[in-house]
Every structure is written in structure tokens, then in C-alpha cells.
Amino acid sequence: MSLVGKKGVDISSLNGNVSVEAIKKAGYDFVMIRCGYGSDLKMQDDTQFENNVRKCEAAGVPWGAYLYSYALSTADAQSEVKHVLRLLKGKRPTLPVAIDMEDGDGYKAKHGGMTYSNINNVCKIFVEGVRAAGYYPMIYTGLEEINNYISSEVLNSCDLWFAQWWKVPQYYGNNMGMWQYGGEQNFIDSPSIPGVGVIDQDKCYKDYPTIIKNGGYNGWKKSDKVLDSTGYRYKDRGTGVLALKEMLILAKRLGITTQGMDENGIFGDGTQIAVNQVLKKGGYEQNGIAGDNFIKYLVCRPLILTD
Fold first, then answer.
1. Least confident of 156-170, 180-194, 266-280
2. Is 271's pLDDT higher than 90?
3. What is the mean pLDDT of residues 139-148?
4. Is 235:24 a contact under the CB 8 Å cutoff?
5. Which residue has the higher pLDDT, 304 or 38?
6. Spatial distance between the Cα atoms of 258 and 284, rounded to a whole number of angstroms
């Protein structure tokens, strides 16, 4: 499933122990997660980051990360790059890695950081540092920063996550990747999600999972072939899962797989192993996901799978 035109949310520890399943059930298809704020200090890690990543991956929801910037100097900006890279080590987000350049609490303005030279420099250092480490960078900001604090060269060096709580975005650049269209104020949807509460909401303009995986960003290898990024996965239930398992039981009888499983509508450990055995035979990433492409591959290519 492409994320183009899809809605998502961005979350942090300020949302508490948020339910990603409730977000998914409400029709939101991706999540941007705050990993921390400011310089590379463990006390400035977002306390819910690891938990939020685990919940997104368990629910099969694509996620990206952002760091709230407090940088007042080149040294601060370099430390913020180290901060986000430390927290992303060993993880493979399928959405961009963003620097949040808002000044919501007025810290930068109070300490002389809201200048063209500083804001532009912080953005440049973050984008270059994150990209050099193999990640897909993004800048989160609004019209004030675009018009007064960031050069066109830096702004156009990566995709933009544009913040404007309004009916339509007033930014039209080709690098528009996401638009945060609502939070406490929301002119398009309700500002809250049942079971979650008030939450920032976004719209996506690019199919980031495909771009990032195919481009080899964020820890993905260009050689990795992903058959499906959405579909049935671990802990799913229902008649669709039962039908999938019946196909996998038949695949075992044909010698395509070796893993047995119970005949019920629960996607458990055995089902995941069997799905990955099929993916391995096809040379695909063993991500445990059985979507439309997996079903077609399993049904239409028995001879290839049994070779």
C-alpha cells in the first residue's frame, strides 16, 4: 500500500503510553515518533521512543523519527545529529528522520537562537549529518522559518515536513513530503482520536517505504527485495488468516515449506515461520508479512517455489 495521500500522526512522550492499535483502527496509516530533544544526553531521550517503535512494528505501521532541536550553535547541532543517530542504531524506519525546527516554548528566541545564520546552519548540519550516516533526512518547520530563517539551498536539499494547521497547505515546493495539518486546532478532522486523545495529524505526499527501501536508506540495503510491506502478520486474527494458513498447509504438503501449524484463524509463531520460509525461497526479505503479493506469489508460482 502506497502512503501517498494517506493520513498519519506524530507522537511523543507528551502523548503518554499511546495506543498505536487505536491510531491504526481510526484510519491513520503512519506514525512519526519523537526520539528525543536537544543535545546527545540520555536524559533528553524521549522516554516513550523505544516503546512507540515496538508498538508501531508490532502493529505493522510504518514509522519515522524526529528530534526537537534546541541548538544555538554548530556544536549543539552536531550533538543533535549524534543524538538521533544513537537512538536509531539498530533500527530501520521506513519514513524519514526529521529535525523539528519549531520554537514552541520560546527557548531559541530567549537565548538568541532565532537568527537566520543559526537556524539555517542547524538545518544544514542535521541534513548533511543524517544523510552521511545513510538515513533519509527531513526538515519539519512552518512558514515563518521558510520565509525568514532557511535558505532555499538548504530547504531544497531534502524533503519538507510542513507545519500549518489550516484547510490547505500554503507551501507548494516539489520537496513537500508531509503536511502537519492539525493538532489542538484542526480544520479537517477531529483533533482527537478515540482511545488516544488530542494528537497531531499529518498527510503524506510521497511513498516513503518504497523510496527508502529501494534507495537503501535507514539501514535498508538496496539488494533487499520486499514482497509486501502490509498484509497479514504476527498476532492477526480472522477468516483471512485461516485462509492463508490453509494455503500454507498445502504448501507444506507440496514440500514448499517444512513448518506445520494449527488450523485456526490465529497468525502465530508457526505461521510466521512458514511465511518466512516462502519468502526466503523467493529471495525476499523475511519480514513475516503475507500481503496481496505474497498470496499471488504462493498461488501462481508453485513450480518456482518447489525448484
1. 266-280
2. yes
3. 97
4. no
5. 38
6. 18
| CA–CA distance, 98 with 55 (Å, rounded to integer) | 20
Q: What is the pLDDT of residue 306?
A: 44
Please say whether the beta carbons of 96 and 138 come within 8 A.
Answer: yes
Q: Which residue type is seen at 300?
A: C
Q: Are 227 and 293 in contact (CB under 8 A)?
A: yes
Burial class (CB in 10 A: 0-12, 13-18, 19+), 22: middle
Is the pTM for the entire model greater than 0.90? no
* Beta-strand relationship, 192-193 and 197-198: antiparallel
- The residue with cell 516503546 is 51
Pairing of strands 137-141, 159-163: parallel
If one compares 94 and 280, the residue with the highest pLDDT of the two is: 94
Cell readout for 226 is: 520486499
Residue 10, classed as helix, strand or coil, is strand
Angle between helices 269-281 and 292-300 (to 10 degrees): 60
Q: Angle at Cα 25 formed by Cα 20 and Cα 30, nearest 5°? A: 55
For residues 187 and 182, give the distance between their C-alpha atoms in angstroms, rounded to a whole number.
7
